[in-house]
Amino acid sequence: MKHFKNHLPLAVLIFCFSFPMFSQNTTAAAIDRLKKLAQQVTIIRDNWGIAHVYGKTDADAVFGMLYAQCEDDFKRIEMNYIEKLGRLSEIKGQSVLYNDLEIKLLIDTNEAKADYKKAAPWLKKLLNSYADGINFYLHNHPEVKPALLTHFEPWYPLLWTDGSIGAISTAGLSTGELKAFYSGNTDKVAYIEREKDVQTGSNGFAIAPSKTASGNAILYINPHTTFYFRPEIQMSSEEGLSAYGAVTWGQFFIYQGFNENCGWMHTSSNVDVADIYAEKIVTKNNKLFYEYDNKLVPVIEKKITIKYLENGKLIPKTFNTYYTNHGPIMAKRDGKWISLKSNNRSMKSLEQSWVRTKSKGFEDYKKAMDLKANTSNNTVYADKEGNIAYWHGNFIPIRDKKLNWSKVMDGTTSVTQWKGLHEVSETVHSYNPTNGWLQNCNSTPYTVAGDNSPKEENYLPYMAPDGESFRGLNAIRLLSKGNTYTLDKVIADGYDTKLTAFEFLIPSLVASFEKNISKDNVLYSELLGPITLLKNWDYYAQENSVATTLAVEWGYKLDPIIQKVYIDEGDMDQVENTLNFAKIATPDQLVPQLQMVINELKSKFGTWQIPWGEINRFQRTSGDITMIYNDALESLPISYGPALWGSLPAFKSNYQKDTKKRYGTNGNSFVCAVEFGTKIKAKSLLAGGNSGDPTSKHFYDQAEMYRKGQFKDVLFYKDDVQKNAEKTYHPGE
Predict the structure, then answer these.
(1) For 446-501, how does the pLDDT look when each residue is reduced to its tens digit (9 = 90+)?
(2) Cα–Cα distance list, 282 to 181, 322, 412, 462, 650 (Å)
(3) Contact call for residues 88 and 94 (beta carbons, < 8 A)
(4) Which residues, 6 or more positions from 719, have their beta carbon under 8 angstroms from its beta carbon?
(5) Could you give the CA distance from residue 528 to residue 550 in angstroms, rounded to a whole number?
(6) What angle, 0 to 180 degrees and rounded to 10, lies between the N-to-C axes of helices 574-584 and 502-516?
(7) The overall pTM is greater than 0.90
(8) Helix pair 591-605, 546-555: axis angle to 10 deg
(9) Collapsed DSSP state (helix, strand, coil) of residue 7
């Protein structure tokens, strides 16, 4: 049973404290060392403000990369690590106390410190450079006031070892259950629950030479994340590193991108990588034991102290926590303690995240996959030799195939214990399918290559419980008929805005209206216009489309089952649920919901005839992690619809506090198409711009392009970077 828990919303109020700054507690010798190190690193900012970092060694490149990241958005780097350290309560108070406890149960800082001490020399150099780059930035920028972390440690990256936005796997356990267990339900402290079934997702396409105009493979990289979650950057060294793409703030590897040999795109996976166990707890001589293979084993007890901010003071709260051989106790269900077995951080995962960026081709990349440490992602791959490939997950425990691992497992027997990891060759994958394309849109791998996809009957259920998505259906439709692909044609397919779900839902609505609403019913005259508009709609989201507005607003008011996108083994997927709903829905489940939409639009705007772009907006007015949206301030109309309903370009918008319009918060952020030939050709686009500083011209310089889906040319080669250089400097200058 595996479910990712998304990061806490980065909507965290940042407080400033008067802690000693790095420059005040660091020796002159240490500063001198960092200044000399900085001279080995060159940062060239191109005409889009994107940092191209060049170092003699890989460690030099990491140093420069983190320095450049800090220049662009230090607060996002810091917030990612405050969260992974389980210290959000120190700046936000009791409201996130149990979120911090959850992190501390799942990510052990002592284990991270121990891993750092035993890390291979090459990895330790990178970890040291990570910390050096950030700390040197803080030394040179005393005006920057960290919310909490005034000094970064080299073991921090070992807390968060892949780049996924949903890197914490809890097997469906909720923070509410955790709080209920460890507070005894008497603690009235709140917590932030993860948003269930939120579909941020991602799209990845790989096109083989047989389907491209140039005869070169093409990769389409389209993560759907919280806006501004990842910047665009390049890092190069004289040790064979030259990687370009998106890096998650505060990490030192290119998460989704390419080098001159190959490219990799990650989509969030629903492979089962975590399981929950019902433990049989016994008290004997005032001590706790759990039953395992007919023996009593002592429960491990650990005290965890978390400090939370209250009235300007840090108040400590100590929890007595419990562990079995499966992992921490996280909840109580049906009178039994529930433990979680997971792999939410590992040094091998961090090693894999780095070594794949230096892959020289297909065999190299497969060696990286053989580390079997990527717990959260699927991988779409293409290279200069013309190979395309797909792997559904990577870290997959071997389990008893007679059991349904989406259920709570019996913790009293070794029968339910993991038996090592599956070899990559045993997992769901596809290499160079004859149809010439691969796609994944957070969907089942059994449609990844159309009719040439892996067959479900050949694999164990826990390897791919994922269902189909409407984006998946849309991608298959397009790629099945595509030929002579160029970068622009791949981008055009990637920007197809068809809301496939409504192909099934709207006809059901229309039929229900026409069969059941008589002309003398007041609803008939009220809804005839909207129904007629929807009946004649082509299902494409467009800026000037009133039908898009009606459909999207209506869709969110229907049975929530059709929004369920992450499923367990044996469940119906979103597409099946939607088809079933459309088939059996009664008029009461369809028509009043449209009437509600009409009334709401009339109440807000005086008319229901509101084009989608008028209410679906992109706004970036500040660099705050917690954005405040305002109808009175400048914003741009966006034609793209929600990924939930099938739009390949994702733009998830919501009504915000005190707004009449919807504002986007996640979806398309960094998007890139790359062609692998004798020379790399690539185009990319960012939401807004690369800088988090509102005073920078690169804060908003890609906004209009983002609205129109117009990509910029990627500057991959140093000669091209230098020709378009805006600024060249060493860190600290």
Answers:
(1) 999 999 999 999 999 999 999 999 999 999 999 999 999 999 999 999 999 999 99
(2) 17, 13, 12, 31, 50
(3) no
(4) none
(5) 13
(6) 10
(7) yes
(8) 120
(9) coil
